[in-house]
């Protein structure tokens, strides 16, 4: 019989306690444990410190995916994180118009830069149009079922706006209303 389910209440209780911790406390504890030559304890606490810092950064980024942008209402924010790569996504809707906003960023900056370079190939092959969104290089492309506008962030991230209903002018207006500059600065 698998008794892993017995651990769930313990994990839930420890998560509740841990959620009250601050990254500062956890990082300081890691340093104290290291000073006492408790390498295993210091490593464990340092990992927890990084987890809390990542959660704090995620909260800052999520807050920039505002509930209302240019009259569009935001839906639920989807967040994924793996191997240092972070993805945030949120749909916005105004009447029959819908737009999806997604951010790809993180320690996998090389991968994000590669994606950005790949999208620039579409521009060079005549499949897209170059433009600027809040002083950042961008490209708008027509895909078979939607219009996609990609913004290359100075931080190395890639911010994408896509819509099946909006035309180029509407999508650009939405992207210009989005807090692109603040999001880029928060990623640095």
Descriptive notes:
With 188 residues, the chain is α+β, with helices and mostly antiparallel strands. The chain has helices at residues 8-19, 23-35, 39-64, 109-124, 168-177, 180-187, and strands at 68-69, 72-82, 85-94, 97-106, 128-133, 136-142, 147-152, 158-163. An 8-stranded antiparallel sheet has the order 1-2-3-4-8-7-6-5, sandwiched between helices. The longest helix has 26 residues, at 39-64. The termini are far apart.
How is this structure best summarized?
This protein is of the alpha+beta class. It has helices at residues 8-19, 23-35, 39-64, 109-124, 168-177, 180-187; strands at 68-69, 72-82, 85-94, 97-106, 128-133, 136-142, 147-152, 158-163.
Question: Could you give the topology of this structure?
Answer:
Blueprint: H1 8-19, H2 23-35, H3 39-64, E1 68-69, E2 72-82, E3 85-94, E4 97-106, H4 109-124, E5 128-133, E6 136-142, E7 147-152, E8 158-163, H5 168-177, H6 180-187
Antiparallel strand pairs: 1-2, 2-3, 3-4, 4-8, 5-6, 6-7, 7-8
Helix pairs in contact: 2-3, 3-6
How far do the termini sit from each other? 49 Å
Largest sheet: 8 strands, antiparallel
In oligomeric terms, what are we looking at?
single chain
Helix content: 40-55%
**What proportion of the residues form beta strands (DSSP E)?**
25-35%
Provide the residue-averaged pLDDT: 82
Q: Uncertain spans, ≥5 residues at pLDDT below 50?
A: 1-19, 108-114, 116-125
SS field, number of helical segments: 6
Backbone structural class = alpha+beta
Question: What features would you highlight for this structure?
Answer:
188 residues; elongated; alpha+beta; eight-stranded antiparallel sheet; signal; disordered N terminus; 6 helices
